[in-house]
Write a structure and sequence with these properties.
This protein is an alpha+beta fold. It has one domain: Outer membrane efflux proteins (OEP), CATH 1.20.1600.10. It contains 9 helices and 6 strands; from the N terminus they run E-H-H-H-E-E-H-H-E-H-H-E-E-H-H. It is elongated and about 135 Å long. It starts with a strand and ends in an 8-residue tail after the last helix. The relative contact order is 0.15.
Length: 405
Amino acid sequence: MFKYFLPGIAASLVSGMVLAEPLTLPAAHAKVLQNSPALQALAFEIKAVDGQVQQARLLPNPELSGLVEDHQRATRTTTIQLTQPIETGGKRGARIDVAERERDLARLSLQAKQAEVRANTSKAFHALLAAQARMELADTSHALARQALAAASTRVTAGKNSPVDETRARIAASGAEIDLVQARADVDTARENLAVLWGGSAQALDQVQGQLDQLPDAAPLATLTARLETAPGIALARIELQRREALGRAEKARRIPDLAVTFGSKKDEQFGRRQAVFGLSVPLPLFDRNQGKLHEALQRTEQARAELAATTATIASELRTAHARLMTARSQARSLQDDHLPGARSASEAARKGYEYGKFGILDVFDAQRVLLQAQAHHLRVLADAHAAAADIDRILGATKAAQP
């Protein structure tokens, strides 16, 4: 029915600039995914966590020490020794596991953010299409209201109508002008909301092109619910639980004392000989057995388990709500398309023909046309709601399908 083509505000037309190629929804997705500051920040986070994994794999450094006894050279004893800490209890493996879970969390956070910005781009794109279409309707309504005012003034001057008709027409024209100003402001806001997603500005956004009346598909709720296991929000909570479990294992491993093996050489100047030095040291866990840290880690694990259950329930509820919104919007759009809009068009056409035969006044014609414009504006809002609900479903489920132009 509608194919909305959004020029980049009247200013660019007045200035005589040559407009760039229209921005489609797939192009907007690509632009945002490539230039989004939020996604770039998460990409750096992944690189930073790679450093944590690298650090976790390293062995403890040895320690070189020297000891000199007696300040007189003839009786001096000099000892050089090398001490190597040896991790026990699987500390290194547990440390690596924690770092790898951190990396998994960072990578999944990036995927979840990508799904979010794609959904936000879809919502902002369709909101911009709807705002421009509403501005065109407001402009048409304003022009009709001005024509109605001129016609009413003429008929009042000729004595064919009451001055009340002119007052009504003047009020309608004033309201239409206010609506037009608001519609233009809404377009500016919608352009800014879309451009900011890739770190740009509304001035750099010339035009967008798309089909607002192409309703998004609506899969059965049971089919969507079956995909919740892989939803980014739930997957993030699951990875967080795994990270907390890994931290618990790391704290448990720290209860086992590490060894320190020492090798060295001792030179005795008085007797003119060298002696090999060997040593082994083990901390005695009499007081600090890392019990506090282990208790904290175990409680944090249970907390993450509860948060996973809560997140699963919340996201499932969000999915049901978004699906209900989509189904309602689709039903309303079809009702408006099949019944309300045809009725408003028929009434407008009947008023026009009746005016030609002298059965209706000019204000009756303009009233019928305003009703038609209001019905079209309502249809635009419902279409935008449908696309917003579909975008929310894609965000919840982490959809990565290519956008339709």
